Fold this sequence. Notes:
Helices cover 39% and strands 24% of the residues. By secondary structure, the chain is α/β, with parallel strands linked by helices. The chain folds into two domains: 13-66, no CATH class; 72-183, Nucleotidyltransferase, domain 5 (2-Layer Sandwich), CATH 3.30.420. Strand 4 (144-147), helix 5 (151-160) and strand 5 (165-168) form a beta-alpha-beta unit. The longest helix has 21 residues, at 13-33.
Amino acid sequence: MDKDNTNLPGPSLSNVIRIDDERIRGHLDKLVRGSVEDITEALWGTRVSPGTISNLNKKIYAQIEIWRNQPIEGKHPYVYLDGIVMKRSWAGEVKNISLLVAFGVNEEGYREILGICEGHKEDRSGWAGFLRHLKGRGLKGVRLIISDACMGLMESAAEYYPDAGWQRCTVHSSGKRGPTPVFLSSSLP
């Protein structure tokens, strides 16, 4: 490395994602520690009371519940599943929660967010409940599920979509081994 840092390698995508992830977490930590009035003043230039925020949240959560339970229209041959672990504050106590996320590619080739579900962890019962919810809303025509190799996820997917193939997501697979399509009802890798 020279004094001008011109010999530094360019940033890799994984490093950029990691840096952005840390930056976002830093901002979220500041928001969690700050007061509602400080946050709203920083965002909108005016202070808003916690009561007003609470009332707005009730309206937003009602809309989210409507969206979460609306019927899923059409077929989605490709479904991507993943869990995201985040920290959430409950009555002053911070706990890890998992957001189980599904998005699909419809028959016209467009991606759609199919559902997001909050759970305590990314395990078989969490995934089973989430997939049961999606199937109950009308998710059908699934030919391939793309995900990480979480056993709880794979077992639940095999239960609810036994005819669908499974492929490990390229983001989750190592560079030494490419993704391998398998059938969920067959032996798991």
